[in-house]
Amino acid sequence: MLPLAAVISEPSLFSLEHLPRLPQRLVELLLGNFGAPEWLVSIAGFLVAAGTVVGVFLGGFALLSLIERKTLARIQNRIGPNRAGWFGILQPVADGIKMLTKEDIVPDKAEKFLHLLAPILIVVPAILALGVIPYGREWTPVSLELGLLFFFAVGSLTELSVFIAGWASGSKFPMLGAMRAISQMISYELPLIITALGVVMVSGTLSLPHIVEQQNGGFWHWNFFTPWGFFAGILFFICSIAEANRCPFDLPEGESEIVAGHMTEYSGFKYALFFMGEYLGLFAISALGITLFLGGWQAPLPGLGFVPTWIWFFGKLAFVIFLFLWIRGTYPRVRIDQLMRFAWLCMIPMALLTLPAAGVWHFTGRGLLSWVLVVPLLLVPWVIVGVIFNKRLAAATRTYTFADG
Q: Which residue in 259, 298, 242, 288 sits closest to 148, CA to CA?
C-alpha cells in the first residue's frame, strides 16, 4: 500500500473532476494507512459517499426554497423574501429555525408511532433514489446493474408513506387527501415507467451509468434528440411534474379544497420533513430524466470535455428545475377529474406508443429511414388523441334549472 503522503500528492485526487469524491477517497486512504480491515474501509467510504450526496442535496433544498420564492415573486411582479440577510439569502435559515421551534401537535385519535414514521418514510426513498444517479464520470455513489429498477422500486415507497400519513392522522381530510394523492401518483407512475422502458430497449441495459455512456459524442446522440426520445422525454417530464406534486398537478395539497391533504394534521419539523421529501423527490426525478434523455453528465459538444462532467450534470439539473418553477408561475391548478382523465386517456396511450417507436428506431439502423418511419408513427396518433381529448374536455353549454314559484 502506498504511503498516505504519496497518494495525497497524486494530481488526480485534487482535480476538479474528482472533487466530489475527495472526502470518500481521503477517508478510505486514512483508514487503509492505519491498517483498518477492508470491510471497514468499504463501509466508511460508502457512508462518506452517501453523506456527500445528502449534504449536496440538502444544501440544494435550502437554496431552491429561496430561489423558487424569488422566481415566483419576479413572475408575479413582487419582491419576495428580502428581510433575512442580504437579498433574503438567510431566509432558508429562518424557515428552518421556525420549523424546529414550532410545537409538534399530534391529534388525540392519531396513531402516534405511524404519525411519526410517515414523514421519515417520505424522505428515505428520495435519498435512496439519489444514491444511484451518475452525477459525473467519476461520481456515481452506488453503481448498480439494475439501477433504473432500483430507482422505481424505492420510489414506490412514497405512496406507502402518503397512505400512512393520511390514515395515521385519525381525521377525514388527511385520509381523503391521501387517497387522492395516491390515485394521482399511481396514474402518472405508469406512463413514467413506460417512457423509461423505451430507453432500456434502445440501450439494452438497466444500468444508469451505461445508459449515459451510450449517449456520448454530442447532443445529437442524446435520446431526447431522436423522434421517439423527443415524445418520450416530453411525456416523462409531464409525468414527473405530477409525481413531484408540482403545479399544475399539485392536487394533493389543494388548499382550497382539502386544506393540506395528507399533511393537514402535521406541524413543526414533521411538516418540514414532508416539504423536504418533496424537494428531494423533485431533484431525484429530474436527475433521472437528465440521465435517460439529456445525456446525463455528457457535454453537449465533443470539444467541451475539459469542463468537469459533474458541472454539466448540475447545469442541466438547474435548467430542468427552472422549467418546474416557470410552469408553477404560469399555469393554474387543474381539477382532479381533468388530472385523471389526462393520465388515462392521453398520457398512457401515448406512452405505450413510444415502445414500438423505439423498437422501429433501433432495428432500422437509426438513420434517415428510421426518421421516416418513426415520425408518422408517433405524430399521427398524437394529433388524433389530442383532438379527441380536447373534444372531451370542451366546455358544454350550461343548463340552469330554477325552482318553480
A: 288
